[in-house]
TrEMBL record:
GO molecular function, one term: transferase activity
TM stretches of this protein: none
Gene: tusE
Top EC class, one word: transferase
A biological process term (GO) from this entry: tRNA wobble position uridine thiolation
Enzyme Commission (EC) number: 2.8.1.-
Name by which UniProt lists this protein: Sulfurtransferase
Originating species: Acinetobacter colistiniresistens
UniProt KW keywords: Cytoplasm, Transferase
UniProt-annotated location(s): Cytoplasm
């Protein structure tokens, strides 16, 4: 699968995103996405569409706690997504731009 990515590995055109693309992007994290992962990724896309920007970690977790499950926290997301860079990698897997505050 040939994807057009920016210098940070995010999709150039977030509107082409689908679950197959997300799974392709997840290979870099050695991750097989499940329904649980996709529920989170759809919520990240919802955040982007609702607020017009990719979420930083704290607002993302608050949003996920309200929209997906109140038990979600940073440690759980780090564990389930095999990354310490939660906001950056979840945004990348969800097909939206890198959050502004990420290096």
């Amino acid at each position: 699968m040939q994807l057009e990515l920016d210098q940070d590995g995010h999709l150039v055109d977030y509107s082409i995103w689908d679950q197959n693309i997300a799974q392709e992007l997840a290979k870099s994290l050695d991750l097989q996405l499940t329904d649980w992962h996709f529920e989170i990724l759809y919520a990240v896309r919802q955040f982007y569409q609702q607020f017009g920007h990719s979420p930083a970690t704290r607002p993302l977790i608050k949003f996920l706690m309200k929209t997906v499950n109140s038990e979600i926290d940073n440690a759980l997301l780090q564990q389930k997504f095999n990354t310490g860079l939660v906001a950056r990698h979840l945004s990348r897997l969800a097909g939206v731009p890198k959050p502004a505050n990420c290096l």
